[in-house]
Structures are given as C-alpha cells and as structure tokens.
Amino acid sequence: MSDDQHQPEHSQYQRYLPADLRITVAWPGLSGCLKPDPGVICQDFNGTALQFGSARAFNVGEKLILDIDLADIQLSELTATVTSCHRVSEGQWSTAVNFCFTNKLMQTPSIRCNLLQIADRLRSMTDSSTHITERLQHPQSTKPRYNRRR
Questions:
Q1: Which residue segment(s) compose the domain that 41 sits in?
Q2: Which of 12, 45, 62, 117 has the most CB atoms at less than 10 Å from its CB?
Q3: pTM of the complete model
C-alpha cells in the first residue's frame, strides 16, 4: 500500500467542537437590519436548541433569526426564541434558545435533518473527547483484566 493510500484513522473523519459552529444572530424585520450582530460563540447545541455566549444580554421570549454554518452545512434564517439568559462574568452572557418549529419555514424536512446532522457531528467530538479524558485520568481502568485459573 502506498503512503498516500494509508492514512491514519483520525484523518478520515472530521471532528467538530461547539466553537466550530458559526452562528450569526439577527432580529426579525427591520430591527434586524438596524442592530449589529452581537458576535456569539456556540457553547452547546442539539437538534432543537442551542446555547451561545456573547457580550450582550437577551430577553427571555425575544425572537431571533439565526444563520448556522458547520463545514458543509449552512442553514439560513432559522427562527428561535430566547429561553434563558444569565451573566457568567462581567460583560459576558450565556443565552439559550429553542428553535421555533411551529414556524412554517422551519417545518421542512431538510432543516430538521441538517440540524440533527450538526448535532451528531458535535456529539461525536464530545463523546471522543470525554472518552480520551477518562482514559488519561484513569489509565488503569482501561487495561484488560484476565481471569487466570491456577
């Protein structure tokens, strides 16, 4: 087998962290054009909701329009509602939103499918990181145990 055909396993699969998920936040209607994007960083994501950090506080119940981008998956104008917002440090806020699947534009199968694909990619990385961390913290627990009869 030539060197270019033999690649390590980790290079075959792209791994993603929540920070790799690019999110743009806007507000519905004209106010979305007038307010600047608050520059958010994804903290957590699943197929129905996400949490992000920003330097701006949001109001519970506030409607947002999100664009999401992870590698080859780009979703535009997703509707979401703020479910919680709390300050984590001076000038830094953590905001949770739920996607609004009652909105007709959000009910297409491709949107749900793409959101689930993003969640799966992010979960794969999280699961791998957790497994590696556990092995580093408890190396003796990963050694096989053999029952030998004497």
A1: 10-137
A2: 45
A3: 0.71
